[in-house]
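Lab notebook: predicted structure, single chain.

Context: the supervisor wants predicted structures on file for every construct in the current expression panel, including those that have not yet been purified. This is the next one on the list. No modifications to the sequence; it matches the entry in the shared construct table.
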Amino acid sequence: MRSLVTGILRRHIRQLGTRGCHSTVTMTGSAMDANTVFHLDRYSRYIPAAISIKHLLDHGKSSNQLGSYLFLKKEIPTRLANMIMELQLLPEDLKKQNECSQILNDYVSSFREMLVFDGDKTGSKAQLELFSETLNVIRRRHLDTVPRMATAVFKMTKINSSEGVSDTVQYFLDRLYINRISIHMLISQHHALIGEESITGMVGTIEQQCNVLKVVEDAYNAARVLCEREYLDSPRLKATCLDTTDSNPETRDQVSAAMVPAHLHHIMFEILKNAMRATCEFAESKGGEGELPYIRLKIYKTKNDITIKVSDIGGGIPRASSGKVFNYMYSTAPQVVLPSDGGSYGAGLSGDSLPMHGLGYGLPLSRLYSRYFKGDIQIASVDGYGTDVYVYMQRLSHMAQENLPVYNAVSSAKLRNIATQVRDWTDLGGGSMQ
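Prediction complete. Output recorded below exactly as produced.
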């Protein structure tokens, strides 16, 4: 496994100086010493090294803590530095918000703490222990990044929930949140491998033969609790599986693959929660008599993909609104107000202080979790009837590779100028992070 880590580190070195049009670091609203500025400029020139689930599995099976240390002490500050550079390009009205300033300060603090390990090549026991403690601090520090930024965006615009955020903010938020997902993933994997979060049958946070239906059912049960608390009822779930690659009729109704169960649970929880709310409210609008329509779910495993189709009879989405469902702050539910400090008291998006719906973050974040390992989410709806949601995931672990934002001349120009770009009929809303 040492060869894998060495190869990735060599890629970092080769990439230095190849980014092009890289501006000098200028930190606004955050005082930094010369050493931090120097290293920020240095690390922000590196391109984050995208890792696949297969790489994580191969490394996890060797339980090489030193190899993990040598890789992460370069990779995490690289991802932090790339995002710090982008945070400086936000619209001024957004940067002025206290919550946004706090997020920037959090990233700078985490970057500084990682610099302690910059020159170490030995990885002594004391250094490894300090590194693990530092990662724990960084992980906790960024738990509230999403609700804090949501508060900052809302305060900046007093956003109209029928439209969502602007293209500029949408582009940035996608990049900020997937950067956060990636750092959280690396830290969780590292801690799981050294035994701090060990679960039988797992390689770090990855389950080699994850039972997709079981994860979906767990997500359904969690969403049902919220639904029954709010609507005093919940639609039942009818789920079926089909492995088209399995010729054995006795086992082809079971679907499993190597994946991160926590990510799949997050995705399905949000989708099922939306389907339940729509079903309950649509049934109530029709008189509310009799049993609620079922939510039907089908899981397909094919040669290259795993597809989950969720179908509800919840009234559907008007075609004029279908293009907005992945916009942050867009919601068909009554808009809610986040906690006054923009936080969830350390619980992130799972915090009890956050409501069941109305934030306008469920679907956009779920799509990011899907796209993080080269999957996707798409929606087809019939207005006045119901909605089908398709969740796509890579079946092959070597194809499930991180989809990471990169700070370079292209992204910098887009963050500065996207507000002046006018879409035409050829723009179908492709969602590349690069």
